[in-house]
Amino acid sequence: MTMPLKINFEGHDGNLLSGVLHKSKKDDNSIVISVHGFGADKNYWIIKELSKYLDKKEIASMRFDFMGAGDSEGDVKDSTIEQMVGDLNAAVKYAKEKGYKKIAVTGHSLGGMVAIIAATLNKDVHALMLMAPAIDIRHAIKKRMDTYKHTKDGMAEVAKTKVKKSFLKNISRHVYNEARNLKIPVLIIHGDSDKSTDIENARKFFKKLQTVKRLVTVKNANHHFSKRSHLDVLLKEAHKWLVKNNNIQRRVRKHESYDRGFE
């Protein structure tokens, strides 16, 4: 295992973003950039465990805090989807400047939506892995109104995090249309007991994809893959996917599509 390096780079709005870089002794050409969901940070359970697992497999990875999250500068109350997409693109630019040529992006929850949008805009993203992605937040808000609350001070509370009320309107969208614009390999890993992001939305998005793709359904797994056995499935499937698609360029070579379930 390599020693994690603390890094900083300029984000979309000029804020200094904090991250952790895990280098690889075997491959200095490829890297995986992990994106956390809303209310989380770079040390979130799934994100950190994925970095540790990839490190053991000698695959370079990088995880960072969005503006206002974790150790990054800025205020989370000013968050927007566009700002988060900009921060991710800044992370991709940082990795490219460090010499990495094959860049895969993986996102969890809202980070999944951010990753999808960024991948449709950024030619330097070569593969995409989505973990319980927020595909249709309109549906998620309607389904879990208990986690979206308006407060008396002109703010709103989302997943116990205060933001401007305009944030609710900003994130109330879907990314089904972006599916057809993705020309890179896409892996989706989703638990069928997820109460935050509906797996049916992920399946609908998956069907619209016209590229190399795979959907893995983890039976009984929740939104956070809290059970170790469920997380282990995620880590192993992620590794296999990344290794298999490590040399795939932006040009799609073949079509692969299947949904595999795991106990």
Task: Walk me through this protein's architecture.
- This protein has 263 residues and is of the alpha/beta class.
- It has a single domain, classed as Alpha/Beta hydrolase fold, catalytic domain (Rossmann fold, 3-Layer(aba) Sandwich).
- Helix content is 31%, strand content 24%.
- It contains 7 helices and 12 strands.
- The strands form 2 sheets. A 9-stranded mixed beta sheet has the order 1-2-4-3-5-6-10-11-12, sandwiched between helices.
- The radius of gyration is 17 Å and the shape is globular.
- The model is unreliable at 248-263 (pLDDT under 50).
Measured on Cα atoms, how large is the radius of gyration? 17 Å
Total of helices: 7
Q: In one word, what is the shape?
A: globular
Order of helices and strands: EEEHEHEHEHEEEHEHEHE
- CATH class equals Alpha Beta
Indicate the topology.
Layout: E1 5-10, E2 16-22, E3 30-35, H1 45-56, E4 61-64, H2 81-97, E5 102-108, H3 110-121, E6 127-131, H4 137-143, E7 148-150, E8 155-158, E9 161-164, H5 165-171, E10 186-191, H6 199-208, E11 213-218, H7 228-244, E12 259-262
Parallel strand pairs: 3-4, 3-5, 5-6, 6-10, 10-11, 11-12
Antiparallel strand pairs: 1-2, 2-4, 7-8, 8-9
Outline of the structure:
This protein is α/β, with parallel strands linked by helices and 263 residues long.
Key terms:
single chain, 263 residues, alpha/beta, 9-stranded mixed beta sheet, 3-stranded antiparallel beta sheet
